[in-house]
Design brief:
Layout: H1 6-11, H2 13-29, H3 34-44, E1 51-53, H4 59-63, E2 68-70, E3 73-80, E4 86-88, H5 90-99, E5 112-116, H6 125-137, E6 140-144, H7 156-162, E7 166-170, E8 183-185, H8 189-203
Parallel strand pairs: 1-2, 6-7, 7-8
Antiparallel strand pairs: 3-4, 3-5
Helix pairs in contact: 2-5, 3-8, 6-7
The structure holds zinc ion (ZN).
Zinc ion (ZN) binds near residues 82, 83, 85, 105 and 107.
Amino acid sequence: METASIFGFRRNPQAFYNWMRPLARKILAASPNPAHYALAELEAAGFLKAIITQNIDMLHSRAGSREVYELHGHLRRATCIECFAGYEAESLIMGVIQNGRVPHCPACGGLLKPDVILFGEQLPVRELLAAQQATRRSDLMLVIGSSLQVAPAGDLPLVVKERGGGLIVINYQETHVDRAADVLFRDNAAEVLPLIVRAVMEAS
Ligand SMILES: [Zn+2]
């Protein structure tokens, strides 16, 4: 937590990038799974309005989803913590993966931080507001592969229930909203979601 906090980042950016290096390598090598594609299909067909995610791996957008609120940020861009100039992050992160060196701002020499939300940082306001708004409008929320232990995203499913909407939970572990769920799957989302989406398509 110290390493992945904004304070740790400022104090010892090399330790942060050493920690991030294998994670970034994994993320850049990852591909969307059938669950990501099923959600993109559901959106394209008009049934899904938005995805709220705490993942930083960008796999939803890579699978073709359009309305994605990434509450914990992403690795698409990086920002200078001194002058706030923004940069495309991919080549920069490839550089970190290859040589492990801390990237600096070409404009001012300040430290560059990927646009992921570290401990001690505010969530992105625009994304959070959009997520809350989508939640208030939702008549059905799918909770997929999240233990819902991190606020404020973890509290959103109950907002849907309080407003009379439905709740489907697909998760291996127990969550605090299981008892409020209308349907509960203790299964792998990559197996269950494509089946749900196929059933929805056939019924429509
Ligand atoms: Zn700068």
